[in-house]
Amino acid sequence: MNTDQIKIEIQNLTMAYGSFVVMRDITARVKQGSVFVIMGNSGSGKSTLLRHMIGLQRPTQGDVLYDGRSFWRLDDEARRAQLRKYGVLFQSGALWSSMTLAENVALPLIEYTDWSAADCEDIVRLKLALVGLNGFEDYYPAEISGGMRKRAGLARAMALDPEILFFDEPSAGLDPISSRNLDQLILELRDSLGTTVVVVTHELASIFMIADDAIFLDADTRTMRVQGNPRELLKHSHDTKLRAFLTRGDPSGTAQSDAL
Amino acid sequence: MTATGANSNLLVEKVSPGAVLIRISGNCRGQLKSHSVEVARQALDQTSGLKCLSFETTALTGWDSRLIAFLRNCAELCRERNVEFRDEGLTDGIRRLLRLAQAVPERSDARHASVRIPFLQGIGEHVLKGSASTREWFTFLGENIVALANLLRGRAQFRWADAFFVMEQCGPQALGIVALINFLMGLILAFVGAVQLMKFGASIYVADLVGIATVREMGCVMTGIILCGRTGAAFAAQLGTMKVNEEISALETFGISPVEFLVLPRMVALILVMPFLCAFADLISIAGGFVVSISMLDVSATEYLNRTIHAIQLKSFLLGIGKGSFFGFLVAYAGCLRGMQSGYSAAAVGEATTRSVVTGITAIIASDGIFAILCNALHI
Q1: Which CATH architecture is the domain A33-43+85-259 placed in?
Q2: Which chain A residues have a beta carbon less than 8 Å from that of B7?
Q3: N or C terminus of chain B with fewer C-beta within 10 Å?
């Protein structure tokens, strides 16, 4: 796998709802097989950036390229094919409530592959086992806890072995152990399957554990401030806002060890 | 012994008396199927005194989740047969994913047992469920009456602004559909009546027919049904979604009664708006009859209007709008009850909406029947 290959490229992206500009001039590159973290305070437009990267929202200006091709300039057919290469974990799982967990994970398999029912079932059981939901196949989303719903959402996102996995606040609402297991799984997917992972989060522990690369969005100036590995940024960056974020507002900068 | 299975990526070798090795090679992407595990099963079953199953992946160039699923199934077979499953020959990535998949053991108590319910037990459970739901019906009715009493004493947690907002939504904004449906009802009544009455040369009595039928029955029933589909369903969906979002729990934790705060405004709004909607519906429906009569029959406009005014008694009109008000109560009651009973998912909200319309329409028609009997007995 060529690790220097650029998987996603964000070019001068401006995001806006109507005339309200959320963020402007975002430029970043995500390498294939890396974990890319979008950091920022609440309300800084992290999730909005993610929605632009998934293709749920059209950029007001600028572009998002995948493997060098602009998502929005593709025709419908190619766009759908591109979407099939993504897996998205939404904030609260976004499981389809009228289906069991197994049916939730199986739906993309049934829609997009010609596998037999037994094949699909095999994969469904594997994916649910990977997120620690062995034996919960026949449960409905309403019957399980929020954390489990989130993990089941991840199993569904992984169903088609996507090239890119997007996570919106993966650790929010999870206990520390589950949260760490999830981080472990993210790294495992990156290392073994070469999946490119994009994560929106503000959990410092998680950021320092998984991020290969990150950008920091600033709500006040409405643009991104820096891109780089958070551990390196903490050591070398002089950006006061970023330092405050990475040290939980503690100027002595010891919060990193607390967080870890 | 060397045997190739159904899949060219898999090569089974017996390396020593107690050990079988599966070589996995080439690009496995999309190649392995669930029946690929039969290769391993055969090897395990045909080798006597087998101690361990191991793997070799040096020539493996590509793989996906199917490989992990295959290995998981192999591990399962090994466990069943008490054979050691050795994962040393797998590449790091595969081994780690496989271990991750096995990290959390299956919760044996988690799996839903599929139980067959005996016939009689099924009936019994149905009856119990029915009686429980009847109890809920009356509990909710009681809560509403208490809330209404609190409102009359001025002690309810009730905001008139909410009630006015609902009134606007289910009153003025429903005029269009109410007008259309009732105008057509008037037309239809007049048509059906005209065809029969013309045979006896009694065309003028179409005015009586349309007037009385509309004012006593059709106006309020049709308006009730329209509101049930339009507003009752909306109530159920609103309250159901609020329940899903835990908004109703939030109200309760503040000590605010959801019945007084959410149900009462809707109930009051519909009870107050329905008489006006019914009167409007009556007028429009009579206009429909009027159009048919003067264009189709040998009746002049003045005659028709005179006959209509003569036919409609005040008590009929009051009965109609009184029933309308009651139907408004039923619609709000059904919508709110089903909304509050909703479960915590999108599917449950949909079901609540459906049930609110079914309950509402059934209640309207059934109570209209009871009203008809009562009126007959009381000579109204």
Answers
A1: 3-Layer(aba) Sandwich (3.40)
A2: none
A3: N
